[in-house]
Amino acid sequence: MSQGAGDAWWRTTGEFMDYLVGAVSGAASGSALVWLLKGWISERLKQSIQNEYAQTLESYKTELNSKIERIRHDHQVAQLRTSLFFDHQRSAFAALISKIGQANKEWGDLYDEGEGLLHPVPSRTQDQFESLLSEHQLFLDEDCLMALSLVTNIYEQSLPWDDGSGDEPRQRECSQLLADIGYLLPRIASIFREKIGVTSNPLHLTEVAVFSAMELVNGYNFEDAGVPPEGPLSTVRIRDAADKVSIGFENIDELLKLLRTFDKHLSKDNGWIHKAQLRVKQTLDALERSLARPSIIENARR
User: Fold this and answer.
1) CA-CA distances (angstroms) from residue 94 to 50, 98, 140, 182, 231?
2) In 10 A of CB 149, how many CB atoms?
3) Cα dist from 143 to 140, 199, 284, whole Å
4) Residue 57: beta bridge partners?
5) Would you list the domain boundaries of the chain?
6) Rg (the chain; Cα; Å)
7) Three-state DSSP state, 116
8) CA atoms within 13 A on the CB side of 300
9) Helix, strand, coil percentages, rounded to 5, for the chain
């Protein structure tokens, strides 16, 4: 009950009580009037409380309805944003997978039975793939970027290289690089499917992460970090991607330890080799998360 309403009520009640007191003083049945007075006061008090409660309840209902409307609106906006994000993500996945497949076909068509594949990935298709990757990068998480960076790296390895002799740049034989892309393509597609909620093989992310780790620790020269490794993790004599992944799984604890050491070493260099540092972090994160899934190692070794 508000202060003003309370004062008015008590003034009205006081006037009535003065009247009743006068009546009681001249009446024979004062006790009956006192009883009536108590009932009247009780009823007025009850009505006042009910009215105040009704007003408070109505205020709460109005406030609650307003909050519900805000929540409903925010939820609808969030759903719309999520829908737009996944729609664009699905389009990005489809475009990237299609372009990798196109590059593989065009590259494979350059294979010669006698000489092998003495051509880099077709430059036009490579440029289109890199343009798509740049365009859709915002919609790709770290797992996808880690997997696609392997494709980019393989394409770069296929380009002619200058040995410093002053001769024309030399072209390596690229059959194994093309085979590596062939190994990665279905696994990258599987990773993409999982990202949009389609059933896929969870082992594929782990295989790609292991392959990325093996390529990283064998592709740089940082003696203080133990890179490239000697012993079982060395891929000097290993060419096939599946064999590299198999070796990585067989020595997974050593691989993780070396990758963590490499990550710490790169972190001390103030980011001067940013590309390698980013790839190592992405790979290490994907590998640790994927290996945390139940039975991943057991399934990989079957």
Assistant:
1) 65, 6, 12, 17, 40
2) 19
3) 8, 17, 10
4) none
5) 3-66, 84-300
6) 38
7) strand
8) 28
9) 75, 0, 25
Token pair of 49 as six digits: 């409380």
Q: Consecutive sets of 10 residues in the chain, 302 residues long: mean pLDDT of each?
A: 49 53 52 66 76 79 75 60 70 95 97 95 96 92 96 96 85 96 97 89 95 97 93 94 96 96 85 83 95 67 56
96, 117, 293 from 106: Cα distances, Å? 15, 12, 37
Q: Report residue 2: phi and psi, to 5°.
A: -70, 165
Query: 29: part of which helix (H) or strand (E)?
Result: none
Give the distance between the most distant pair of CA atoms in the chain: 133
CA neighbor of 121 nearest in space, from 142, 96, 140, 104? 104
CA 161 – CA 121 distance, rounded (Å): 14
- Can you tell me the distance from the alpha carbon of 4 to that of 255, in angstroms, rounded to the nearest whole number? 79
Predicted TM-score of the model (pTM) = 0.72
Q: What angle do CA 147, 187, 148 make, to 5 degrees?
A: 20
Residue 140 phi/psi, 5° resolution?
Answer: -110, 130
Token pair of 1 as six digits: 């009950």
Type of residue numbered 29? S
Query: What b/e sequence results for 264-276 when a residue is b if at least 16 CB atoms lie within 10 Å of its CB, and e otherwise?
Result: ebbeeeeeeeeeb
Backbone angles phi, psi at 112, to 5 degrees: -120, 130
CA 138 – CA 150 distance, rounded (Å):
18
- In the prediction, which pLDDT does 10 show? 45
Cα–Cα distance between 277 and 152 in angstroms, integer? Answer: 16
Q: What is the residue whose two structure tokens read 């490239």?
A: 228
Which of 250, 164, 156 is CA-nearest to residue 210? 250
262 contacts 216 by C-beta, under 8 angstroms: yes
